[in-house]
Every structure is written in structure tokens, then in C-alpha cells.
Amino acid sequence: MRQRQLVLLYILFFLLAASTIGIMMFEQPVQRIIRASSTDPSREKSLILADKILARPSDKVQITVFIRNDQGEALPNKSVQVRVDNGLLTSTTAITDDSGKAIFTLGSNGAEKSVVTASTEGIDVSNTITVYFTQQ
Predict the structure, then answer these.
(1) CA 70, 75, 96 angle in degrees (round to 5)?
(2) Domain Big-1, which positions (predicted)?
């Protein structure tokens, strides 16, 4: 009976020691991974919106970019760059607010199609927006 208790005590000691060593070795890497994912922008969860996709050349179109992480949470204070193949942007860079939103204004000098893309920290937002300026 005593020998069985001693074996159980050894097993308990081994499990406790192994758990302690495991926690000490893996705690820092796990914390780094968790923290990194919460502040890194997500290509798929971030998005670009336009208040209109059909506009006259004299109109101003509001382009809104939302920067999100992999969990879909807003990322404030991120620098966002917007590019267009045609059209005129009042600014090409903005900082996200507390809701992860950056706002830009797009205009045009004539009838044209403008494809809008955005990026932050070298990560391109997966969707693009196309705005058609027409002479209607």
C-alpha cells in the first residue's frame, strides 16, 4: 500500500514539474502571438466603402476605409494609404480614428472610371471600389 502511495506521489510530482516547465517555456511566445494578432491589420477583415459608385464629374465621393484585425476589431491610429488609377484625391494618407475608420474624398475632372485601393503597414486591403464618373 505504501509503495502505491509513493508511486502516485512521484507521478503527481512529475506532472506538476512538467506543467511548471511548460508554462515557463511557452508563456512568452504565446503572449507574443496573442498580442501580435490583436494589433496586426487583416487584409480580409479590413474594407473600403464609397458613398456612391455613380457620380458626376463635379461630385465629391467619400471613400471610407475600415482597418480591422483578424478578430474584426477596429484598429485605431493606423496610417492608411489610398491610391486611384484615375481621379483626384484630396489626400492620399490618413490616420484611423477610434473606430478604425479613415476618410478620403475622391473627385474627377471628367467622365472616367476610378478604381480605389488601400493599404496599411504594407498590407493591401483585399477589396477595391470602382467609382464611375459620368456626364449624365
Answers:
(1) 140
(2) 43-134
CA 29 to chain centre: 22
Residues 6+ apart with CB under 8 A from 115: 84, 85, 86, 128, 129, 130
Q: Are 134 and 54 in contact (CB under 8 A)?
A: yes
Give the 3-state secondary structure of the chain. Answer: CHHHHHHHHHHHHHHHHHHHHHHHHHHHHHHHHHHHHHHCCCCCCCEEEECCCEECCCCCEEEEEECECCCCCECCCCEEEEEECCCEECCCEEECCCCCEEEEEEECCCCEEEEEEEEECCEECCCCEEEEECCC
CB atoms within 10 A of CB 129: 22
- For 110-127, write each residue's pLDDT tens digit: 999 999 999 999 999 999
Residue for grid cell 508511486: 7
